[in-house]
Design a protein that fits this description.
heterodimer; A: alpha/beta; Rossmann fold; 33% helix; B: alpha+beta; Alpha-Beta Plaits; four-stranded antiparallel sheet; 78% helix; 7% strand
Chain lengths: 226, 304
């Protein structure tokens, strides 16, 4: 469960990034957030991974109240939320396997467990064949799958996909969206932000529209309208 | 345990990633450690030399053979009250003869002939001084005592100012050696700190992408900082190893020169006897320099 209650983010130069945003997302939901560049989508995501703190308002994810979470526990929070980005954020000098394993390594998972879990998740995203390839040898879609595998390998309750198809051609974009739907069917809450009208309209899932830092629309089965 | 190994592994990998900077960092660490060790050596050397010279410079006060037991006791009591006198020991004529006898083979023969002619060696007081620098003044004060008429001579009168000059020279040299050593050590310490600081800064810069991803996937602060601190410590460890590899053959090569020409035997022995302490000291100082500068770079450039 994700709960935002009248969340506002204001920057020192008086720019308002988010203004009184209230949002409730149930477990296992698939929610698409749409909005123009600068509407506040990225701010919203940075709030959820606690890269940023709201100027006012309350954020609760699962049973964690972001106001009271200990600084030392932020890494543990981030391990429960998987994130993928438009630019993949893969490490170029590591293979697909190593990039995915990296997420487990930083949380102290044993090498044996890594050897067991990584191939499994790579199979899920359809990258078993490319396990030992470097990011430079992959297509955009494959890079994004690697990033998704890395986000999923720790079994997060929530997967946030920030413009995951922004750098991909339509075919690869659909592959990624289908992968996200599959992950959602397995029980992970998926939060997707995108600019792609075609995808949003075809999904027939909940759509939250943000404009100038405010939620202007929140529909159960929504369409892309800006 | 797994985590610690991963941190150390990453620290090693960082070093090889910036090979040139790592080489510079290790080199400056070696120079710094060698300079520190060299000046530690010379300070200990000069101090032992100084101690030996000072030991020899106590004031001997020779007494007339005519002096009565009472006069001698009176003078001894009075000497102890003179300013700058730390202790007074009476060496009787018989003691003096015994000392001569046991001093060397030559001395034995001399002592024999001396005792044959009725022991001409004078009785004396050996006066230890608190501050050797004021030996001249103390000597005059002693000479001025009312009980001083049984004094025939003092070691200071004999030698004029010579020994004092030697002492002054030794003190001056030792002071300037330690001062130069201290200044140079500090200068190189600062250079080492700055260079390692900069190396770690570069490492943070080249790894910023990796750090960002680490944060994203939930690495703890220490997991992110750890490899940089390990990197700093490794420069200290490598520096100490190389310094020892330079130092040991070098000191072997020059040891005969040091012993024969400079009389540095005791200092060398001291160093050999304390080798492990010195070696671990070098490792300790190296690691400390590495970790401290690494830490400052992290505070300054790694925002977590």
């Amino acid at each position: 469960m994700i709960l935002l209650d009248r969340v506002s983010v204001m920057y020192p130069n008086k720019t308002v990034a988010l203004s009184g945003v209230s949002l409730h997302i149930n477990p296992k939901e698939f929610v698409t957030i749409v909005g123009a560049s600068g509407a506040g989508k990225s701010t919203l995501i940075r709030l959820l991974i606690k890269e940023e703190v709201p100027t006012s308002g309350k954020i609760i994810v699962g049973s964690i109240d972001y106001d009271t979470i200990d600084k030392a526990n932020i890494p543990h929070l981030r391990r429960r939320i998987g994130v993928v980005f438009q630019d993949f954020k893969l490490l170029p000098n590591m293979t697909v396997f190593e990039n995915v394993a990296f997420a487990l390594e930083v949380s102290g998972v044993s090498n044996r467990e890594i050897k067991r879990a990584v191939p499994k998740i790579l199979q899920l995203v359809g990258l078993s064949e490319k396990m030992h390839s470097y990011p430079s040898e992959l297509s955009g879609g494959e890079k994004q799958r690697t990033a998704i595998a890395r986000a999923l390998v720790r079994n997060p309750k929530i997967l946030i996909a920030d413009e995951p198809t922004g750098n991909l051609d339509p075919k690869n974009s659909w592959d990624i969206i289908e992968l996200l739907l599959k992950i959602n069917r397995f029980g992970t809450t998926v939060l997707l932000t995108t600019h792609n009208k075609e995808i949003v309209d075809a999904l027939k899932k909940r759509v939250v529209t943000i404009n100038r830092g405010r939620i202007i629309k929140d529909e159960k089965i929504g369409k892309y309208s800006l | 345990m797994t985590t610690l190994l991963r941190i150390i592994k990453t620290g090693f990998r960082n070093i090889f990633r910036n090979a040139w900077l790592s080489t510079a960092a290790t080199a400056i660490m070696v120079v710094t450690l060698l300079i520190m060790t060299f000046f530690a050596f010379s300070t200990i050397f000069v101090n032992t030399q100084l101690a030996q010279v000072r030991e020899k410079i106590d004031l001997s006060i020779f007494l007339s053979d005519d002096a009565t037991q009472a006069q001698i006791q009176e003078l001894q009591a009075k000497l102890a009250t003179v300013e700058n006198v730390s202790s007074v020991t009476l060496v009787t004529k018989a003691d003096a003869l015994k000392r001569l006898e046991s001093s060397s083979e030559e001395g034995q023969k001399l002592a024999k002939s001396a005792s044959d002619i009725g022991n001409p060696l004078p009785a004396s007081f050996e006066v230890k001084l608190i501050n050797i620098d004021n030996i001249s003044e103390t000597n005059s004060n002693i000479r001025a005592l009312a009980e001083a008429k049984i004094i025939t001579d003092t070691s200071f009168d004999n030698r004029d100012d010579n020994r004092k000059g030697v002492v002054e020279n030794v003190i001056r040299i030792s002071n300037s050696v330690s001062r130069i050593g201290l200044v140079l050590s500090i200068v190189f310490l600062i250079i080492a700190l700055l260079i390692i600081f900069n190396t770690i800064r570069m490492a943070i810069f080249t790894r910023r992408e990796e750090v960002e991803i680490m944060k994203l996937v939930g690495a703890t602060k220490w997991f992110i900082r750890g490899p940089f601190l390990v990197e700093g410590a490794l420069y200290g460890i490598f520096g100490a190893i190389i310094s020892l590899l330079v130092l040991i053959p070098f000191s072997r090569a020059v040891s005969s020169f040091l012993i024969e020409k400079l009389g540095a035997g005791p200092t060398l022995e001291y160093f050999v006897a304390h080798f492990w302490i010195i070696a671990s000291g070098m490792f300790g100082v190296g690691i400390l320099i590495g970790v401290i500068s690494s830490w400052f770079a992290l505070i300054r450039y790694l925002k977590l």
